[in-house]
Amino acid sequence: MAAAQGSVADSAPLTDSAGRAMLRWTLGRSAGPQGLAVRAAGLDATLRVSARARAGAAANVAFRDPPAKGKPAAPVRLVAVVTDAYGNRVPNALVVFGARAGALSASRVKTDDSGLAAIRWTPARSAGAQSVTATLGGTTTKASHTVQVAAPPKAR
């Protein structure tokens, strides 16, 4: 027996009186399809077993490619990425967004099938550093991002 992902406790288990062999297959850390090849001694055929590993519980949140600069009152798209302890993206996780200044298009968003939660944030009209936070729902795990908002153009 050989696991393409993960591991098996015994690579050569013995059969019981009914001719059945049992083994424990621990799936790998990556979410998605995983495979195991099983072969009986003396036979040329190989049995291929497959399983689909799902992401674990949401453990991390981060902003994906956030802008460093913004313009007063000009909407900015912000995307939060939620992952499990192994870096797999987690779908259907609640992200709570907050901002001390400006306006959010939504404050509570669930991640999509790719583990992404997107909002639009409109910075306040004042110049300077303005921050947005993304917190995993029901936890204290959060990410924060600061955008330097330029001064509004002077009237002529």
Keywords:
single chain, 156 residues, mainly beta, 4-stranded antiparallel beta sheet, 44% strand
Written description of the protein model:
With 156 residues, this protein is mainly β. The protein has no helices and 14 strands. A five-stranded mixed beta sheet has the order 7-14-13-9-11, with no helix packed on it. A four-stranded antiparallel beta sheet has the order 6-8-12-10, with no helix packed on it. A three-stranded antiparallel beta sheet has the order 1-4-5, with no helix packed on it. β13 and β14 form a beta hairpin. The chain is rod-shaped.
Shape: rod-shaped
The unreliable regions are none
Strand content: 35-45%
Count of individual helical segments:
0
Annotation, overall tally of beta strands: 14
Rg from C-alpha positions?
A: 24 Å
The oligomeric state of the chains shown is single chain
Following the backbone from N to C, one meets helices and strands in this order, namely EEEEEEEEEEEEEE
> What does the largest sheet look like?
5 strands, mixed
Structural class by SSE content: mainly beta
Q: Between the first and last Cα atoms, what is the distance in angstroms?
A: 77 Å
| Helix percent band | under 10%
Q: Give average pLDDT, whole number.
A: 91
What order do the strands of the largest sheet run in, or round the barrel if closed? Answer: 7-14-13-9-11
